[in-house]
Amino acid sequence: MATKLTKEIIEKFIPSRENNSRKGDNGKVLIVGGSYIYHGAPVLSSLAALRSGTDLVYTCVPKINAFSTRSLSPDLIVIPMADSKLTRGTVNKMLGQVPVDIDSVAIGMGLAIQDIEAIKILVKSLLDRNVRVCLDASSLVKEILPVIEGQNVVVTPHSGEFKRIFGESLDAEMNSRISICEKFAKKYSITILLKGQEDIITNGDLTYTNMTSTPCMTVGGTGDVLSGLTAGFLSRNKNLIEATCTATFVNGSAGEILQKEFGNHIVASDLISVLPNVLNSFNN
After folding, report:
1. Given pLDDT bands bounded at 50, 70 and 90, which one contains residue 284?
2. What DSSP assignment string belongs to 14-81?
């Protein structure tokens, strides 16, 4: 039986921020994404992670994107990748540059992957450091399943990406979609966030749904914001399904605010601008 997310549920999932906390105590996030074409995706994810309440965000992008990424925001700590696509050499250099005490990571937003082994090495290495992992977009490939099985991993596919990683199509009927998501979440002991008109979040034992049918949310980049929020909340809450539910609900709530103000004429960066309004409405 799936539970519909409400504000009252989400309030219990957001950790309080201690008045005497110091920089880094409220989370350190790594974002890995971007390519020659998709330079904006990791920026949206990074800014969303910061707005979630995390303290530090390290944004790892191809070297060709590093200057533009830095110019888009002074709030990001930019780590240039050695190559324009993800390779084993890029991963090895990146792992030497990234702080060892990262809490969470989101990987895949706009990322061009040249070598599937590279993404497997990256994910396994971060999991070995006890980093909580969110996988999106190009990182959602079937080859990654043996690496993430039984680990602290959230995958965030839409229907097409779900078929690509798990090899099974989803129909429109909601109960069927829930059942299939629960099956694969339980099989691989991971958390699945299936994006759609009504999002499904499940770890195989607990299942939640979130209605996000605002038409304006079909604009490109809203999924990148969601991945950044997921990584941000994962950095502060070790309970994967709670953090994922929080990200989903907050992202959808931001969309509802913008729908009322701008109708169907928003851009993804608008979501980031209203995230404080959403989060400040919670009693925490």
Report:
1. low
2. S----TT--TTTT-EEEEE---SS--SHHHHHHHHHHHTT-SEEEEEEEHHHHHHHHHH-TT-EEEEE
DSSP 8-class letter at 199: E
Angle at 246 between CA 240 and CA 249, to 5 degrees: 140
Whether 234 contacts 240, CB under 8 Å? yes
Report helix, strand or coil for 192.
strand
Beta bridge mates, 134: 106, 154
Task: Provide the CATH number for the domain formed by 24-280 in this structure.
Answer: 3.40.1190.20
CA dihedral sign, ordered 23, 246, 224, 234:
positive
Backbone angles phi, psi at 79, to 5 degrees: -115, 110
Q: What angle do CA 10, 14, 20 make, to 5 degrees?
A: 160
- Report domain extents, the chain: 24-280
CA dihedral (51, 52, 56, 59) positive or negative: negative
Characterize the bridge pairing of strands 28-32 and 132-135. Answer: unpaired
Helix axes 240-262, 222-236, angle to 10 degrees: 140
Other C-beta atoms closer than 10 Å to the C-beta of 158 total 17
pLDDT tens for 57-89 read 999 999 999 999 999 999 999 999 999 999 999
113 secondary structure, DSSP code: B
> How far is the CA of 172 from the CAs of 158, 167, 197, 198, 208, in angstroms?
13, 17, 10, 11, 17
